[in-house]
Design brief:
The chain is built from eight helices and no strands. By secondary structure, the chain is an all-alpha fold.
C-alpha cells in the first residue's frame, strides 16, 4: 500500500500511516465497494495533489487494485498452509493403520451377557411380578443369606 500511494503523489508520512492501519477495515471497505482513501487522506492531502491523481486515488478502480496483490498473497499463504495440514493429517492417518475397534466394548457386552445367564428365570422366582416373594426370595436375589 505504501508503494502504491507514494507512486500517486501521497506524502510518505501519510502513506506510511495508512499502510499501518488494520487490513480488515480495508477488506470490508472493498467488499462494500467503498473507497476509504478519500476520507483517510483528508481534504488537505487531496487538494495538494494534481486533480488527475486525486481523482485516481478516490475513484472506483484504484483501491481494489491497490489491495488485490496483498489479498491474493494472503490467500495463497492460507490455502497452502491448509493443504499442507491436510497432507500431514492424511499421512498420519495412513501410518496409523487399519480400522480401529474399541476393545472396551467387547468386555462390557460379555459381562452383561454373563449377568443375564446368572439370574434365575422368572418362573424360578415365582410369577415374575414380585407377588408372593417374601423375605427369603428377596435375599436370594441380592446374594445375602
Amino acid at each position: 500500500m505504501l508503494v502504491g500511494l507514494t507512486a500517486h503523489g501521497v506524502p510518505v508520512r501519510t502513506a506510511a500511516a495508512l499502510s499501518q492501519l488494520p487490513p480488515l477495515g480495508y477488506l470490508f471497505a472493498a467488499f462494500l465497494r467503498y473507497n476509504p482513501l478519500g476520507t483517510l487522506l483528508g481534504p488537505g492531502v487531496l487538494r495538494a495533489l494534481p486533480p488527475g491523481q486525486a481523482a485516481d486515488l478516490t475513484g472506483r478502480a484504484f483501491f481494489p487494485q491497490l489491495i488485490s496483490g496483498p489479498f491474493r498473497h494472503g490467500l495463497v499463504v492460507v490455502l497452502a498452509f491448509a493443504a499442507l495440514m491436510c497432507l500431514i493429517a492424511a499421512a498420519t492417518s495412513w501410518m496409523r493403520g487399519g480400522k480401529f475397534v474399541h476393545e472396551e466394548a467387547g468386555p462390557h457386552l460379555t459381562v452383561a451377557r454373563s449377568n443375564r445367564q446368572d439370574r434365575p428365570s422368572p418362573s424360578a422366582r415365582g410369577n415374575g411380578h414380585g407377588a408372593g416373594t417374601g423375605r427369603a426370595a428377596s435375599s436370594r436375589e441380592h446374594g445375602s443369606r
